[in-house]
Amino acid sequence: MKKSTRLSRLFHLILLLLLFYSTGRAQVIHPEAGFLFDDAQLPRIDLSISQSNLQTLYADPESNMEYFAMFTFTRGDSTEGPLDVAVRFRGDTIRNKQKKSFRISFNAYDSDNTYHGIEKMDLNAEVNDPSLVRSKLGWELFRYLGVPGSRSNHVLLYINNNFYGVYLNTEHIDERFVKSRFDNNDGNLYRNLWPADLVYLGADPDVYKYEYDGRRAYALRTNEDWDDYEDLATLITRLNQYSGAQLKAELEQLINVQSYLKAVAVDVMSGNWDGYAGNKNNYYLYRDQVSGRFEYIPYNRENSFGIDFRDVDWSTRSIYAWNLDLRPLYEKILEVDEYRAQYSMYIRQLAAYTASSELGDELTRWSQQIRDAVAMDTFYTKDWGFTIGDFDASLNIV
């Protein structure tokens, strides 16, 4: 009877494990590239905008005012459009550069409009990167480890039939993004920019609505009408309050620990100092309404693989003390021996993959795909004086 009971329990345990595995596998982490993000070809995007609106746009780059334009997307022999869209600049410091990043809104004039399932398109200039592939490489590393990250591909941008250069079309993070990754989008989605360090400021949720440089450090991007920060305040409070075995129990309820460990492993291996652990910047947090846990979503990858403005050699810092100052999420998770070992394993996996011929071949393909267009990109040279020689040499550095 005891043997039968043990076998029965074992059978039920196996069923539970299989159920958990199948449930996890059913979660869509990386949708197919599709028409917009397929990198097998180099698509062309055309924007037609009145000259007066274009001049006004460039006259006030800090503005988020959107301007009407007509949008056309060409991939090989297939052209779609023209579509009515709204255009503005995007980003922070990039707005002061000569080669600027753009946001294209397909739902500006009709809230129900989408284009191949997206409402916004982010065209990133990648001005700090002479190779123009660092961000794409970062997104590939996230894909490899199964972290929810943006899809991306290089595109050619023309405005009023004038060539504005090579851009990285990077999937916009919004409610549609989280729906495709977690199969729900009614939870709170926070976009977190400097100085979003997750340091405890108090139990009152409203204290985390503080602003820096005219915008919230933790900016709620869904459920704005409710403007309820209680879940974020709970995460920060418990993260800073607990330690030891109690910390591990709390973390498992608060955040998808494994996904975060993978994300920070990519940051460390790629030298991306401009994320949470390095610069308390450029990440999203989404509270999954099914699991009840926060999901860490990476954002912006340009300042990596040797690009540095902090006068720090990120390649020589300890992977266990990679932060420069207080980062509770990074530090607290690595206090747990089990998590530290798993993090080390992810680092080793990335080290093997980054040294693989498979990834090397992809890097070469991306570079060769855009090289001729980079040679014609006059905006490529304007901010840092990059030349096609810098582009050719950069692949040996990435």
Q: How many helix segments?
A: 13
Shape: globular
Largest sheet: 7 strands, mixed, barrel
Please mark out the parts with pLDDT under 50 across 5 or more consecutive residues, or reply none. Answer: 1-26
Write down the Rg: 22 Å
Mean pLDDT: 92
Order of helices and strands: HHEHEEEEHEEHEEEEHHHHEEHHHH
How would you classify the quaternary structure?
single chain
**N-to-C span:** 63 Å
Give, in spatial order, the strands making up the sheet with the most strands: 1-2-3-4-5-7-6
Fraction of residues in H or I helices: 25-40%
Give the structural class.
alpha+beta
Our estimate of the beta-strand percent is 15-25%
The number of E-state strands comes to 13
Top keywords for this entry?
globular, 398 residues, 13 strands, seven-stranded mixed beta barrel
Describe this structure in words.
The chain is built from 13 helices and 13 strands. It has helices at 2-26, 34-37, 51-59, 134-145, 175-182, 230-241, 244-254, 257-270, 276-279, 328-335, 337-354, 357-376, 388-394; strands spanning 44-48, 67-75, 78-90, 101-105, 120-124, 152-159, 162-171, 189-192, 211-212, 215-216, 218-220, 283-287, 294-298. The strands form three sheets. It has a seven-stranded mixed β-barrel. It is globular, with a radius of gyration of 22 Å. It starts with a helix and ends with a helix.
